[in-house]
Amino acid sequence: MRTSDLPNAISILRIVLVIPVVIALLNNNFSTALVLFAIAGFSDALDGFLAKQFHWESRLGSILDPLADKLLLVASFACLAWLDLVPMWLLWLVLARDIIIVVGGMAYHYLIGQFTLLPLWSSKINTTLQIALVLLVIIEQQWFSQLALITSVTKWLVVASVINSGTEYIVVWGLRAWQQYKNRQ
């Protein structure tokens, strides 16, 4: 393995880390889940730093990094919904947004042409809020039941950001696709 492959290896390890996070959550072992989730968060920051600092960015990395994030978040949301700690409809809303983005990206790729996966700021905010909600639910279950109000507010912020981000992706990438289509003619 070359040193420049390190960010991709870290992303792959983060994907593998989803399994123990799921096991910990489903076993109500929230302390372990919190530690593993924190390790995943640190590894996300680390691989991004290494890729940018040393110019080790790659097309594979631009796919693996958001894939690792999505797998961790969706798996966490699914577990928390299964445990009835977040509403099932919220899981479906989060999944619907991600499916729309993936299907839209595939349609763009096959109908219009190759593109660089660049997350929108609304997506970064959405991811941050989703992470915050998972962490708050875990912390609330393990240590501080008093966080219920903050957790509830964060849940509704996630709802707003999922809708905003999903809509922005549809509009921004729809306009880009339309412009490229018009330019071909």
Beta-strand level of the residues, as a percent range? under 5%
What is the mean pLDDT? 87
Helix content: over 70%
The sequence of SSEs as H and E is HHHHHH
**Structural Rg:** 18 Å
CATH fold group: Four Helix Bundle (Hemerythrin (Met), subunit A)
Number of domains: 1
Instruction: Tell me about the largest β-sheet.
Output: none
CATH architecture: Up-down Bundle
Briefly, what CATH class? Answer: Mainly Alpha
How far the N terminus sits from the C terminus, by CA atoms, comes to: 45 Å
Q: Name the overall outline.
A: globular
Q: Count of helices?
A: 6
Name given to the CATH homologous superfamily:
CDP-alcohol phosphotransferase transmembrane (TM) domain
Structure description:
- By secondary structure, the chain is an all-alpha fold.
- The protein has a single domain (3-184), classed as CDP-alcohol phosphotransferase transmembrane (TM) domain (Four Helix Bundle (Hemerythrin (Met), subunit A), Up-down Bundle).
- The protein is 82% helix and 0% strand.
- The protein is built from six helices and no strands.
- The chain has helices at residues 6-26, 30-53, 59-82, 88-111, 121-142, 148-184.
- The radius of gyration is 18 Å and the shape is globular.
